[in-house]
Amino acid sequence: MRELGRRSEAAEHPFKQPARAARATSIGIAPSLERAPLALVAKVGRREEVVAACVASQALGIHVGMPATHARALASDLDFRPHEPAADVALLDRLALLAVQRWSPIAAATPPDGIWLDLSGCDHLHGGEERFCRRLLAFCRRAGFTARVAVADTPGAAHALARFGARDLTIVPPGETVRELSPLPPAALRLEGAALSAARRFGFETIADLLPVARGPLARRLGLPAIARLDQALGSVAEPITPREDAAVPMVERRLLEPVGTAEAIAQVMEDLLRDLAGQLQALGLGARSLRLCGLRVDGSEQVVGIGTSRPTREVSHLLRLLKLRIERIDPGMGLEQFWLAAPHTEPLDAVALGAVLAGDTQVRDPARLVDVVAGRIGPGAVFRLAPVESHVPERAVTRSDPVAMPGRWPGWQRPVRLFTRPEPLWGVIALLPDQPPRRFEWRGRAHRVVAGDGPERIHGEWWRRDAEVWAVRDYYRVEDEEGGRFWLFRRGDGVDDGTGDLSWWIHGVFA
């Protein structure tokens, strides 16, 4: 799992800790006296037992597994409520959906009392693993939950440390999973009751006692499921997290009778999925900005490709053309037997008035289709449009924007067609200070004699950025040499006060 970059964590439900977690819950948790003691009661076999107890009720001597009559005798004023497992599952499902929407795209509930999060590639968005975990604990406290969080290389290790670890927050360094799991009891591996009884009978008190035993004899004593849980916790066997799907994301699915592997068959499945998805989007009044196609191979692995559009659309022919550009990236292997198509990013798409177009009064010229095709071939980052920015400094007055968005109004200043990313220095400049344009300069090893010039255009630095720009001055000149070349030059400083610049000359652009 370390090679896959998995980092997982689990958080517990406040009032749902089984009896096997007694070691974890007995580590210095102060009883909360702000709320009335609460215990949940359910029928186990032929009698009623306490199945969950808060910290305050545990301080009164109430524990999980105690008969309900005994608990009522110990604390007559204890708040007893019936246990509702369906409500707990629904709450965990809502928390998992919240995690998918806010924290990580891969989150799943681990009934009866936990949540898994995959932090691969998204921990830096929350300030790192430790900061995210502390924010998660603070969120649980505000919501009224008592939580324990663990981050480890594998989901099984995180599950064990969150419930049986010695701290409320445990972050295992990469490669230290075995050392952290060794002192935990075998119950941390999510073993069944028969396996736990066998472990006690054979003297296995910690996970460290299980590690040196050969897998064959250990399987005969504890069973194959116990070996699988141990390997999952150590990372020898993969344990993928099945994420909670957001119901708000439009998605369609196709299960094939026989696996397909040719480009023509995959394209046909794409078209069928797009037609179904277009119907959903039309019913919702939405248009897709991004699509994600997932194909399940016969061997159990997945092939995922995605596309994006510059404007919301649900036109099947256009989206199919973009998806076909991704077919060459799909490796069918022995065949693909199941497909999903989802639209994770959608925007409202209302009806468009086409009266003038149908009458022939106007001609439709929508660059969005061309932009989508070009971006699909060379990458979305290579297609952009320049937009003006409110700044006097030339290199800060332009930015990249959406290629189909209408740019703002450009100022009426005369600027060169080609503006250099960084100004280049000039040498051998001859100019009459303080306001005359240069008469001669050398650039890129070649001398230029100026025959005409205009300026200066004085530009000051932006004082709100840093103190060094308060007195910074640039005097720009438009000059033309004897061969007809037109250049945009500037001098640092106003030519009078040395504090405004060092009087060096630079070239910033070339006119057409």
Structural key phrases:
seven-stranded antiparallel sheet; 21 strands; five-stranded mixed sheet; disordered N terminus; alpha+beta; 512 residues
Description of the molecule:
Helix 10 (215-222) crosses helix 11 and helix 12 (263-284) runs antiparallel to helix 13. With 512 residues, the chain is of the alpha+beta class. Helices cover 28% and strands 29% of the residues.
Low-confidence stretches: 1-33
Count of beta strands: 21
What's the number of helices? 15
Percentage of residues in strands: 25-35%
The shape is elongated
The average pLDDT is 82
Give the proportion of residues in helices: 25-40%
Whole-angstrom Rg: 34 Å
| Main sheet specs | 7 strands, antiparallel
Distance between the termini: 57 Å
Strand line-up across the major sheet: 15-21-20-19-18-17-16
Secondary structural class: alpha+beta
Helices and strands, with pairings:
Layout: E1 8-12, H1 22-25, E2 38-44, E3 47-53, H2 55-59, H3 68-74, E4 79-82, H4 85-102, E5 107-110, E6 114-118, H5 129-142, E7 149-152, H6 155-164, E8 169-171, H7 177-181, H8 193-201, H9 207-210, H10 215-222, H11 224-234, E9 251-260, H12 263-284, E10 286-297, E11 302-313, H13 316-324, E12 336-348, H14 355-358, H15 368-378, E13 385-388, E14 398-401, E15 418-425, E16 427-431, E17 438-443, E18 446-460, E19 473-481, E20 486-492, E21 505-510
Parallel strand pairs: 2-4, 7-8
Antiparallel strand pairs: 1-6, 1-7, 2-3, 5-6, 9-12, 10-11, 10-12, 13-14, 15-21, 16-17, 17-18, 18-19, 19-20, 20-21
